[in-house]
Amino acid sequence: MRLNRFLASCGLGSRRSCETLIREGRVTVNGDICVNLAVQIGDRDLVTCDDRRVTPSKTLLVMLHKPPGYTTSTIDEKGRRTVYDLLPPEWQHLKYIGRLDRESEGLLLFTSDGELANQIAHPRHGLEKEYVVYLEKPFLREKKGVLIKGFPLPEGHAKMESVEFITRRQARVVLKQGLKRQIRQMFETMGCPVRRLVRYRIGHLTLDDLAPGRWRVLSEAQIAGLKRRLA
User: Fold this and answer.
1) Catalytic (active site) residue 101
2) What CA–CA distance (Å, rounded) separates 220 from 78?
3) Which of 101, 113, 208, 209 is labelled catalytic?
4) Angle at 62 between CA 60 and CA 63, to 5 degrees
């Protein structure tokens, strides 16, 4: 296993951030500082970072049903509640994957694996995210093609993979992108502000009966299935 990937599997961040650790001379392999990004690590190699031995950790992946009123951040500068207030103290180090804005609800993932977090979040992997959207006023169904074709937003060209209207005020939306407040901005641009937004699915993982404010640790089989989808 390449050194940067090994460090990522130890929970030290993404492969790219681990490459920075290596270039800065903070990593040793068998007692020697190693700045070679391509070096291969075997079972008998001793690796340290900042003078502390590091070993691959078992991946922890946690699903949270985020209620409205919590910010997706480790600390809120205004002193508001964050999603970490809903997790046990020993999980405060976990990395959240993607964001849900303060008033949005639904599925939010946390992990100890920095590389997995980046794979799930990065749009190049095309992992679907499904939302249920409640609108302030009726939407003209014949305009849904505009949402699928997309249009420019401040962060880039925004588009939806699919839009299924349950009623004229309620829709199921699938995204593969993750632009900031994308769904809210797209519907508002179309003249229909969002009243409520719930993320129900990421890949094959769904909220099911998980109650708001509750969390669930995902099984090794679920994590393996997710990794296969990202491969």
Assistant:
1) yes
2) 37
3) 101
4) 160
